[in-house]
Each structure stands twice: as structure tokens, then as C-alpha cells.
Amino acid sequence: MIDTLLSSAEPSIRYRTLVHVLGHSTDTPSMRALAREIRDSRLARQLLSLRTDQGCSAVDPRRNRLHPYQKWQGPHFTLICLAEIGYPAGDRSLLPMRDRFYYYSAFLPHDMKRREGQDHHNFLMCF
């Protein structure tokens, strides 16, 4: 089973197997190279394909503005998915997505902030 995962064409599967199953350090030249493969992978490009010229994603057509919680397409979900696949840290082009989420979450009513606490936890793992 592990050999099958390690021979996957998808670099994120190999990365997650090495790190989360076999316990490899992420701070080695080979793992950094694998993270660069993830950054350039079809999956990462697809996740980032909905970015607008402002660097964010998912325009809400009803409001003609970006909405961070647009299911599977908004900045919140995009950043979490990138973190989950092992996308390497330090990509400054992702900052507009982060900023859009922070701006939106600053204006949530208190009871929504409490309900969405898990979302904030998930989001923070991206950084």
C-alpha cells in the first residue's frame, strides 16, 4: 500500500505519505523539492485558477464582490486545501486571499465568530 502511495503521479500524495505516514522531516532538500512539485502541480494550479486580478477568488455574482466562504472556491477553502496538499509556505501571491478572509472575519457578529471558530483554526494552519 505504501509503495502504491509513494509511486503516485500526484506529488501531494507522495508528500503526505512521506510526512504523515513515514514521519519524514519537511525540512530536507528532497522534501523541499517535492513541495515545489506540489506548487507546480495540476491540482495546485486548479485550486488557484479562480483567482481574480486582485489575487483573490470566487466573485459573488449577487454582490459583485469576493466572498471568502464561497464553497470550495473562496479564499478560505482555497487556502485550506493548499495547506492540506502540502503547498509550500512563503508564496506572497496568496496574501490577498489571506487579507480578504481577515477583513471579512473582522466584521462577523460575535455569535458567528464562535460558530466559525473551527474555520478560523483551519485557516490559521495555512500560515
Verbal overview:
Helix 2 (11-21) packs antiparallel against helix 3 (29-39). Residues 111-115 have low confidence and may be disordered. A hairpin with a 4-residue loop joins strand 1 (59-60) and strand 2 (65-66). The chain is mostly helical. The chain has helices at residues 2-6, 11-21, 29-39, 42-48, 75-85, 95-106, 110-115, 117-124, and strands at residues 59-60, 65-66. The chain has 2 domains: 1-40, no CATH class; 54-127, no CATH class. The radius of gyration is 16 Å and the shape is elongated. A two-stranded antiparallel sheet has the order 1-2.
Based on helices, strands and strand pairing, what is the structural class? mainly alpha
Radius of gyration: 16 Å
Question: Strand-residue fraction?
Answer: under 5%
Q: Kindly report the oligomeric state of this protein.
A: single chain
Separation of the first and last Cα atoms: 31 Å
